[in-house]
Write a structure and sequence with these properties.
The complex is a heterodimer of chains A (629) and B (601).
Chain A lengths: L1 E4 L9 E5 L2 E5 L20 H4 L17 E4 L2 E4 L5 E2 L13 E3 L9 H7 L5 E5 H19 L13 H4 L15 E2 L4 H8 L2 E4 L5 E3 L3 E7 L7 E6 L4 E5 L22 E4 L10 H17 L4 E4 L5 H12 L10 E4 L3 H10 L6 H6 L9 H6 L3 E4 L5 H5 L5 E4 L8 H9 L6 E4 L6 H5 L8 E4 L8 H11 L3 E5 L24 E3 L4 E3 L6 E6 L1 H6 L3 E4 L2 E13 L2 E5 L10 H7 L5 E5 L3 E6 L4 E6 L2 E7 L2 H17 L1
Parallel strand pairs in A: 3-7, 7-8, 8-10, 14-15, 15-22, 16-19, 16-20, 17-18, 17-19, 20-21, 22-23, 25-28
Antiparallel strand pairs in A: 1-2, 1-24, 2-3, 4-5, 6-9, 11-12, 12-13, 13-14, 26-27, 27-28, 29-30, 30-31, 31-32
Chain B lengths: L2 E5 L13 E5 L2 E5 L25 H4 L2 E3 L5 H4 L2 H9 L4 E4 H21 L8 H9 L1 E4 L4 E3 L4 E7 L7 E7 L2 E5 L23 E5 L9 H18 L3 E5 L5 H16 L5 E3 L3 H11 L6 H6 L11 E3 L11 E5 L7 H10 L6 E4 L8 H6 L4 E3 L5 E3 L3 E4 L8 H11 L3 E5 L3 H15 L2 E3 L7 E4 L4 E6 H11 L9 E9 L2 E5 L1 H7 L6 E11 L4 H15 L5 E3 L5 E3 L2 E7 L6 E9 L3 H12 L8
Parallel strand pairs in B: 3-4, 4-5, 5-6, 10-11, 11-20, 12-15, 12-16, 13-14, 13-15, 16-19, 20-21, 23-25
Antiparallel strand pairs in B: 1-2, 1-22, 2-3, 7-8, 8-9, 9-10, 17-18, 24-25, 26-30, 27-28, 28-29, 29-30
Helix pairs in contact in B: 3-5, 4-5, 12-13
The chains are: A alpha/beta (629), B alpha/beta (601).
Chain lengths: 629, 601
């Protein structure tokens, strides 16, 4: 059993598990932090961005000034943004049988895998994961495609040139694997390969392995996976949460008794308490708006935004914000809000019970109805007519490199009345802001990451007791910025096996048993003997049939006649046999050969002359007879 | 011998009235549906649960109850069963069924108790208490009822939230379809099941001989009648229950109005019906693909042409269409409107479902045209009366399709008319070559099963066998030899050696003792000593010892010297070893046979 680690990003994993005769890809996360190295794509022509100076080497050589621009001491690639793909060379991806998706954030590389590697298998995911994953992809494609950029920079990627660049470009990894965004056609084709599954559904793979998604509590439809045969069990934990937010709670019990537990997707901000962050988010938002400023919340179109809207629903009246418009701008804003209301079966108990009333599970329905929350596909069109300030705008993309958020950064960046509040934990906010410097607007960092923290992990591991834990190497040491915090790492016994990008791990597995079915006719013919209290034995002689990885034992074609030892020996050319019964068994005398065979219940003793030929012959006869037992 | 028992005394069988089946499988007892018979007002309405267990509690006897969908002929007896007869175990149903079934139960309770004054009926509180025992299941989720019994729901079409259920214990399984529909209709998708190969498929056969598309015809018929009536300026009254048929007919009319660009108003009687549409909006994932795909742009359950009804509208002149509750014209708004419109032959009332005896609906459907209302008033019915059934069931082709999908070992037909079932039974037996049963009402079917027994085989043994199976001469079936260890409930098949080792059993010991004749006149002890020194010098790598009793050991091989019984010049060396030391033993005898080096005299 082997694990091929195709991604080095701990929260955007992509691993391939070879288990028995199957090849299973666990998630295909797309590392989008690479886009931070690129200049933002403005929706409206931005003189500031288009007038940034080209970058030149220390010696004044300016051959890269078309590709690289400088802004407040940082260098950016002036090109269509690119994403860092999982490894595609480590293993032949056309041999992957199935892809298991754990949540909508971890499927963003799917089109690259399913459309360009010869992949012919099936993808499994829950319905909310697919629907919301589709929205995320649709938004991404839309953001990139609606501002076509002619330029595609590639010179800087040359290894010899990259060495000469300033950080962080110099240290950017795997730049040769960076790719431009996929098209909607590729997205549709990729999504058509998905088969929908439900929590606790048992899915048979080639009769050899069974996979089951379990609720992971992190997002709508998010799942952990159990990959098991009858005697081995691997748990794949990815993006899980024990906090009570909108999704169905995490199913922990089913993770018990795993031989190996692969642990990914822990919180990216282990020191921040999500509840505290939400509080800070609300108070900063209120403060800004009361002072006449606008609030910008860069966000994904699904996920934490539902929780934020719910908090605001409870908060705005008491905070006196009833007249402040809330705008949600995304090409998929409407779909996201609508979809969230139809997946009640995938929500926490409180929200689930709403559908029995029947009421929409999320209160943002009421915010929309009362016109407090308005949603638009983009800043163009209706929005420009309705736009009133001061206001609160939720829009993407959280990297601040594309999407409508770029426009608001340009629009509001110059005034210190305005505030940008970062809630998504995927991007370093300082790096995200770098191409907008110098900025006058306030920046508040309230990362809300509901995924497991290290205290919860250690409790979880104690609870479910896996024999071995496998995790990204980042989790086996304290975060680089807090190297003294020994509590910010996984602590388990035996120590977790860690992996980094492009590693191949041999998982510590000793397979000992396999399931086999005994046909009823054969079972009837077995004669069990109780040899110890509660333990019975039966000897089995049967025909083994194997089909589709299923083994069946059938009765032998004809029942073999039980032949006694005596007769058998006679047939083997001994004529002068004399058999005596003793208290414990029998004695067989071969008179001519002066050989004596004592047969007792648990022993056979052959006493003979030094005639090796005869001895070996007798030996083999006795062995053959014994093995029949 | 293991059997599968289907208890038909409760309901179903060759009866369309009510469904309630008890299945006993591998020691587990599961009740499938708990329906009421809408045609009876007395004891016969509910199944006679005393059949299940003569003495003893239902909770102890039944492992679970499964409800396939919210129609009352499938769930109407549930509160009676759980609260009045007494059952506290789990009741499984899908989320939409759980949401909608209590509303229909309450609706029906109101008719029975409030309007008809029936005693000994379940109360509102009992419905609530009953629903507390419900465990909602998701489609395809494997629900572990206990360690051995698992159930799994499949999409059934038919009505919102309808499901087929697989009941599985070990390798034995039954699939129960409830009511289902194999062709997508206006708001629901088609039933689907995987190739789960159950021992038995219990399928409804309501439309066992009906040909496909008959529903489409009825829909066309319905639209034509409605259209003609409003064209000539008449009013159409459609008494409905709040959920199910109402939404389907609304979609039907809504799309027709849109297509024909009609302006005649359509109304919905207020209250529950509007609320009911909310259920459909929230459970949109249970509807058909077309509705699901477009719901963001246009939610099919937000009707443009259908407006809320106000009682004053009934007196408006001109044509209109009104959906009004309740469905059997026994009370409430539908009855009020009926009284107003009944006298005009231009108007029409369409009854889209079954009506129980005693209701106005039942009376007019059976041809009565003079109705005695309260206060000795006689109402003359001049309006046209139409009956149209819209229930969505699988037709013969659909049932065959499902049998093909699931690949059952046997099929059992229920919920149909004997004659039609017989036709279908023959067809199934011919096409799929599986036995097909159609028990009469109240008949119990017992079927033998032959479950294979799953055991764990040691990988070593399996691999050894499979490797040999790959050899070219292994064309004919090879025999696998092993030992089955049965401990508690765990069964493991291992090689005989492993079994003995594991259980600490004395292995059958095979010992050899070889006599080696040696020319030596000396005493036995001296011979032994010579043997010792010879072996000591020859076998440098082995542990050779001379024991106090005069015998010599090489590792665990024992060598003793004895006198020859007849020849004093010959000594006999007895070399004794077990099979484990075969190699060394064989080598030693060969070595000793060559004789000993001459001893220095």
């Amino acid at each position: 059993m082997k694990l091929y680690c195709l991604s080095g990003h701990p929260t955007l994993p992509c691993n391939v598990l070879k288990f028995k005769s199957t090849t299973i890809m666990l998630d295909c996360g797309l590392d989008m932090t690479s886009t931070l190295n690129f200049l933002p794509l403005p929706l409206v022509q931005s003189p500031r961005l288009s007038n940034l100076p080209g970058w030149s080497l220390k010696d004044g050589n300016a051959f890269l000034d078309k590709e690289l621009k400088e802004c407040s001491g940082h260098v950016f690639v002036d090109s269509v943004p690119e994403f860092c793909l999982p490894e595609t060379e480590l293993i032949d991806l056309s041999t992957v049988d199935v892809i298991l998706i754990s949540n909508y954030h971890c499927m963003m590389a799917l089109p690259y895998i399913t459309e360009h590697t010869g992949f012919t298998g099936t993808v499994y995911a829950t319905e909310p994961t697919v629907q919301i994953g589709r929205l995320l992809m649709e938004e991404l494609v839309n953001f990139i495609e609606r501002v076509p950029k002619a330029q595609s920079a590639s010179l800087w990627k040359n290894k010899d040139i990259q060495r000469l660049l300033p950080s962080p470009l110099k240290d950017a990894v795997e730049v040769s694997t960076w790719r431009r965004c996929y098209t909607m056609q590729e997205v549709n084709s990729a999504l058509s390969k998905i088969q929908l599954v439900g929590y606790s559904q048992k899915i048979e793979l080639f009769g050899a392995v069974q996979v089951t998604p379990l609720s992971s509590g992190y997002a709508l439809g998010s799942s952990n996976w159990i990959i098991q045969s009858h005697y081995e069990k691997v748990s794949y934990v990815s993006g899980s949460s024990l906090l009570t937010t909108h999704p169905q709670p995490m199913d922990q019990a089913s993770l018990k008794n795993s031989d190996v537990l692969v642990l990914t997707g822990l919180t990216q901000i282990p020191t921040a308490n999500p509840d505290g962050m939400v509080g800070e988010f609300c108070s900063n938002l209120a403060l800004t708006v009361r002072n006449g400023g606008n609030v910008l919340v860069p966000c994904y179109p699904s996920g934490v935004i539902y929780d934020l809207l719910e908090c605001l629903y409870q908060y705005i009246d008491s905070a006196g914000l009833s007249n402040i418009p809330f705008y949600f701008i995304s090409p998929v804003a409407n779909s996201s809000l609508e979809f969230s209301q139809i997946f009640a079966e995938w929500l926490c108990h409180n929200k689930q019970s709403k559908m029995y009333l029947p009421e929409p599970p999320f209160p943002h329905a009421e915010l929309i109805q009362t016109n407090k929350l308005k949603h638009y596909p983009s800043i163009h069109g209706d929005f420009s007519n309705d736009f009133k300030q001061p206001c609160v705008v939720f829009t993407g993309h959280p990297s601040l490199r594309f999407g409508d958020v770029v426009h608001f950064m340009e629009l509001w960046g110059k005034s210190s009345l305005n505030t940008v509040i970062f809630t998504e934990p995927d991007f370093s906010y300082l790096e995200a802001l770098a191409p907008y410097q110098p900025l006058a607007m306030k920046c508040i960092y309230c990362p809300i990451d509901t995924r497991l923290n290290f205290i919860q992990v250690s409790k979880l591991l104690k609870e479910v007791q896996p024999l071995h834990v496998v995790c990204p190497e980042q989790y086996t040491q304290p975060p680089p910025a807090q190297s003294h915090r020994m509590d910010l790492m996984i602590d388990c016994q035996p120590p977790a096996m860690s992996y980094r990008r492009a590693d191949v791990l041999a998982l510590p597995f000793k397979r000992r048993y396999e399931k086999i079915e005994i046909m009823p006719e054969l079972a009837d013919s077995l004669v069990p003997m109780e040899i110890k209290p509660g333990i019975s034995l039966a000897t089995v002689s049967a025909v083994l049939h194997t089909k589709d990885n299923k083994h069946v034992l059938q009765p032998p074609p004809r029942p073999t006649q039980p032949t006694s030892g005596k007769k058998r020996k006679q047939r083997h050319g001994f004529s002068d046999i004399k058999v005596e019964d003793t208290a414990k068994g029998h004695i067989v005398l071969l008179q001519e050969a002066e050989t004596l065979i004592q047969i007792e219940e648990d022993s056979t003793h052959i006493i003979c002359d030094n005639d090796e030929m005869l001895r070996v012959r007798l030996r083999d006869l006795v062995l053959k007879f014994l093995q029949k037992f | 011998p293991p059997t599968l028992r289907i208890e038909g005394k409760l309901g179903a069988g060759q009866d369309v009235g009510r469904s309630c089946i008890l299945v006993s499988i591998a020691g587990k007892n599961v009740m499938l549906d708990c329906g009421m018979h809408m045609g009876f007002n007395d004891d016969r309405r509910f199944p006679d649960f005393s059949y299940i267990t003569q003495n003893g509690r239902l909770t102890d006897f039944l492992d679970c109850v499964i409800i396939s969908h919210f129609h009352l002929d499938h769930c109407g007896a549930l509160p009676y069963f759980s609260e009045m007869v007494g059952y506290d175990g789990p009741i499984y149903m899908t989320h939409p069924t759980q949401a909608i079934c209590p509303i229909l139960l309450e609706d029906y309770r109101k008719i029975a108790v409030d309007k008809k004054g029936e005693a000994n009926f379940f109360t509102s509180q009992m419905i609530k208490d009953c629903m507390k025992k419900v465990v909602a299941v998701h489609l395809h989720q494997t629900v572990q009822v206990d360690d051995e019994l698992e159930i799994k729901a499949y999409y059934a079409g038919h009505v919102l939230g309808a499901a087929m259920f697989q009941i599985k214990v070990g390798s034995e399984s039954v699939v129960y379809t409830g009511d289902y529909n194999m062709t997508p209709d206006r708001h629901l998708g088609a039933a689907w099941i995987d190739k789960c190969r159950p021992n038995l498929l219990i399928t409804e056969s309501t439309y066992a001989t009906t040909i496909r598309d008959s529903k489409r015809c009825r829909e066309r018929d319905f639209l034509k009648k409605v259209h003609e009536t409003v064209e000539r300026g008449g009013k159409v009254l459609i008494p409905v229950f709040a959920l199910g048929r109402a939404q389907e007919l609304c979609i039907l009319l809504e799309t027709f109005w849109e297509r024909m660009n009609l302006k005649v108003p359509i109304y919905f009687s207020t209250g529950l019906t509007e609320k009911a549409n909310h259920y459909y909006k929230l459970f949109i994932t249970w509807t058909n693909q077309k509705i699901r795909k477009t719901f963001v742009q246009r939610n099919m359950f937000e009707f443009k042409h259908i407006k809320a009804f106000d009682r004053a509208f009934a007196d408006n002149p001109g044509p209109m269409v009104v959906f009004a509750t309740p469905g059997m014209l026994h009370a409430g708004q539908s009855l009020q409107i009926f009284r107003k419109w009944a006298g005009n032959e231009k108007n029409m009332v369409i009854m889209p479902g079954y009506c129980v005896q005693g209701t106005v609906g039942h009376k007019i459907l059976s041809g009565q045209r003079k109705l005695e209302m309260e206060g000795r008033q006689v109402l003359e019915v001049k309006m046209q009366v139409e009956y149209m059934s819209f229930s969505a069931h699988a037709d013969a082709k659909g049932i065959m399709q499902l049998v093909g999908q699931a690949e059952p070992e046997r099929v059992l037909l229920v919920h149909g008319e004997a004659k039609k079932m017989e036709f279908l039974r023959q067809k199934i037996e011919q096409e799929f070559r599986v036995s097909c049963y159609m028990p009469a009402n109240g008949e119990t079917v017992t079927l033998p099963t032959s479950p294979s027994i799953p055991v764990g085989i040691s990988l070593g043994l399996l691999k050894r066998e499979m490797a040999q199976g790959l050899l070219p001469e292994a064309k004919k079936p090879r025999l696998l030899h092993g030992t089955l260890i049965m401990k508690d409930s765990s069964f493991r098949l291992v090689s005989s050696e492993q079994a003995l080792k594991e259980l600490g059993l004395a292995e059958h010991q095979l010992r050899f003792t070889c006599r080696v004749h040696l020319q030596d006149t000396r005493k036995e002890q001296e011979t032994a000593l010579r043997v010792y020194s010879h072996l000591k010098s020859t076998l440098k790598d082995h542990c050779v010892q001379h024991l106090p009793d005069g015998s010599v050991t090489v590792e665990s091989i024992l060598i003793q010297a004895a006198a020859h019984s007849e020849d004093p010049g010959t000594k006999v060396l007895l070399v004794s070893w077990t099979y484990q030391d075969e190699e060394l033993g064989s080598f030693l005898t060969a070595l000793l046979k060559k004789g000993l080096p001459q001893a220095p005299s």
